């Protein structure tokens, strides 16, 4: 192939990769309003958007959102790589829409320009829905704030990609669905209350719930998924108070020993072959956070375990969770 032929092949190859990304399920609707078949993208944010939302993105300025047509505009290699690194709408929204407050909802495809504009500015310009770990102290220059945010988010995606690559060397034995049910008598970290959320850590993986505003007895009923490698340790659980202008305060922690549910599930194999029964137990002791013994049971063909935990290193607070073991073939 000649030099000219090679030069022509590269952009078409890049464009093809971009279109391959566009046809993924989560990218078939607009990241901001769920309108079908988006044909525009914000290259620096990493989302696919519809024509109506595209107009709002353009009004934000290119220092916040650089809008390009997927089919009509020329894309640089760096712009395409950035989109692919982010992975599309679901990955980006897991950060930019991590904490949408109660009472605020995404605009619908038929939303007015005012509704659309208010949500998009809150999401990207004001950064009101970001994960607490990605909040950045404000600066006098919005452009430098957005640059810092973009770098931090891209570092987050790169770290995630790197972890996934290294996890390719790890043999996973199953998945664990952790349903965070509710908290009781949690500690006060603001004037009169707290804005709690829960973070679970297993090895290099982290998963976290949404924030419940001003509530010491929050109800989440939220399911979090963790891949379980061989020879894994306990799940580290932490509860934090979300703060807008300062670092989040710790509201207690606990460790969850997942070996009882793993060994019980492995011993019985296909749980669907058995009726409802107890198959294991994690015993309360002075060196764990259990309020009472926690049994492992087969319930309707699934291996489950209910936990009541007293949070450690804090003045008060309890948490209720439910674990469900999911074999890889499931």
TrEMBL record:
Residues 155-271 form the C2 domain. SMART domains: ArfGap, C2. Residues 15-143 form the Arf-GAP domain. The lineage of its organism: Eukaryota, Viridiplantae, Streptophyta, Embryophyta, Tracheophyta. This is ADP-ribosylation factor GTPase-activating AGD12-like. Signal peptide: none annotated. Keywords: Calcium, GTPase activation, Metal-binding, Zinc, Zinc-finger. It comes from Olea europaea subsp. europaea. Coiled coil: none annotated. Pfam families: ArfGap, C2. One of its GO terms (molecular function) is GTPase activator activity.
């Amino acid at each position: 192939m000649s030099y000219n032929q090679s030069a022509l092949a590269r952009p078409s190859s890049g464009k093809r990769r971009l279109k391959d990304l566009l046809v993924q399920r989560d990218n078939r609707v607009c990241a901001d309003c769920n309108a079908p078949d988006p044909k525009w993208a914000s290259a620096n944010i990493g989302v696919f958007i519809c024509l109506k939302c595209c107009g709002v993105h353009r009004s934000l300025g290119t220092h916040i959102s650089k809008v390009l047509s997927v089919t009509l505009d020329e894309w640089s290699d760096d712009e395409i790589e950035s989109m692919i690194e982010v992975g599309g709408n679901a990955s980006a929204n897991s950060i930019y829409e991590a904490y949408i407050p109660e009472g605020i909802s995404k605009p619908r495809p038929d939303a007015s320009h005012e509704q659309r504009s208010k949500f998009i500015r809150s999401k990207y310009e004001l950064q009101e829905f970001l994960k607490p770990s990605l909040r950045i102290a404000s600066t006098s220059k919005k452009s430098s704030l957005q640059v810092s945010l973009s770098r931090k988010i891209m570092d987050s995606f790169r770290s995630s990609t790197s972890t996934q690559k290294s996890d390719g060397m790890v043999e996973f034995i199953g998945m664990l669905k952790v349903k965070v049910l509710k908290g009781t008598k949690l500690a006060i970290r603001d004037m009169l209350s707290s804005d709690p959320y829960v973070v679970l850590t297993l090895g290099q993986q982290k998963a976290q719930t949404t924030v419940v505003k001003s509530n010491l007895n929050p109800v989440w009923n939220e399911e979090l998924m963790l891949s379980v490698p061989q020879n894994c340790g306990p799940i580290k659980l932490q509860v934090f108070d979300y703060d807008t202008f300062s670092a989040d305060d710790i509201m207690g922690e606990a460790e969850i020993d997942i070996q009882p549910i793993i060994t019980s599930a492995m011993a019985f194999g296909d749980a669907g072959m058995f009726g409802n029964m107890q198959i294991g137990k994690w015993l309360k002791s002075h060196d764990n956070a259990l309020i009472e013994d926690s049994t492992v049971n087969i319930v309707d063909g699934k291996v489950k375990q209910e936990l009541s935990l007293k949070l450690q290193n804090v003045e008060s607070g309890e948490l209720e969770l439910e674990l469900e073991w999911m074999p890889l073939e499931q």
